[in-house]
User: Which sequence fits this backbone?
């Protein structure tokens, strides 16, 4: 009886699940799936070849230093880098004296406490400090940016789908909403054009972004002259700062990939040694196989004798 009840209860659950699935499919098929304006006009980032792409890719310190320069001169006035310390710049090729100078000359000072009065104060940064936030708090940040909150850029590359190519495309993707056309030649409807304090960017998911175009012209940042230094075009500056923000989010990418290669080599060698040990120790050993079984004539005779003694026929 218990088994029958259990079967009926299980059958009821299956029936409810099947009924829900059926109605879900019917509702889905009955809905209109017309693409929204955001889907029709949203563009995906174009492919960008970064030195750190692929399993063997590594950071280019020259590019990272150029990207840091773009961040310092263009982005730092609105966006913080709160998870990165000045001393971490050593990893991208800056010397100790350079790091001290960068920290001491940073335009935003570090919050501190006056040791004599106990009152809040500020002081110049030192290499051990993290990059200070440009605003005292969220309220101040929104008040200065038309109620928009500039995000911290420490992990922005990992927090945005598309990573570094998305960042580079976003920085150079601003367009005039009145003249922009999508891939099908459609004009952006008037009701979807940006309002006051917003800017049209087809690489941004909802098309309208509160951040004005930060990189407006070639040569906005002056790169230090030297061998291998590219011209400071808008695209180059966008790619450089995207590379720098990738390093900020994944500073151990190079060592981690080096360790991965070492682990793969170790596993390959260990597998080879295990196979050779198997061949040396077990290849000549014979697995013991039982030569008798339940259908063996001797065992069948014993079973029939036991059946007769027990009075069992057949």
Assistant:
């Amino acid at each position: 009886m218990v088994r029958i009840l259990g079967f009926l209860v299980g059958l009821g659950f299956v029936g409810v699940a099947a009924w829900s699935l059926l109605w879900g499919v019917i509702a889905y098929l009955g809905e209109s799936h017309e693409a929204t304006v955001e889907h029709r006009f949203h563009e995906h980032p174009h492919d960008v070849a970064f030195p750190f792409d692929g399993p063997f890719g590594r950071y280019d310190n020259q590019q990272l230093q150029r990207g840091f320069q773009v961040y310092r001169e263009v982005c730092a006035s609105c966006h913080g880098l709160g998870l990165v310390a000045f001393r971490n710049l050593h990893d991208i090729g800056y010397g100790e004296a350079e790091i001290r100078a960068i920290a001491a000359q940073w335009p935003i000072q570090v919050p501190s406490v006056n040791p004599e009065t106990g009152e809040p104060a500020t002081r110049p940064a030192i290499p051990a400090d993290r990059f200070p936030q440009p605003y005292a708090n969220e309220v101040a940040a929104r008040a200065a940016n038309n109620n928009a909150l500039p995000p911290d850029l420490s992990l922005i590359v990992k927090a945005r789908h598309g990573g570094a190519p998305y960042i580079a495309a976003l920085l150079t993707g601003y367009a005039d909403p009145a003249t922009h056309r999508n891939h099908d030649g459609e004009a952006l409807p008037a009701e979807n054009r940006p309002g006051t304090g917003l800017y049209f960017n087809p690489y941004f998911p909802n098309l309208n972004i509160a951040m004005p175009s930060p990189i407006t012209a070639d040569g906005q940042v002056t790169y230090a002259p030297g061998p291998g230094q590219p011209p400071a075009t808008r695209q180059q500056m966008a790619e450089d700062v995207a590379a720098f923000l990738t390093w900020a989010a994944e500073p151990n990418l190079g060592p981690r990939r080096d360790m991965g290669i070492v682990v793969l080599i170790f596993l390959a060698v260990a597998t080879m040694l295990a196979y050779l040990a198997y061949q040396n120790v077990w290849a000549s050993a014979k697995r013991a196989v039982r030569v008798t079984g339940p259908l063996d004539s001797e065992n069948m005779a014993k079973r029939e004798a036991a059946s007769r003694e027990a009075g069992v026929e057949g």
Observations:
- The mean pLDDT is 90.
- The chain has two domains: 39-84+130-251, 256-309.
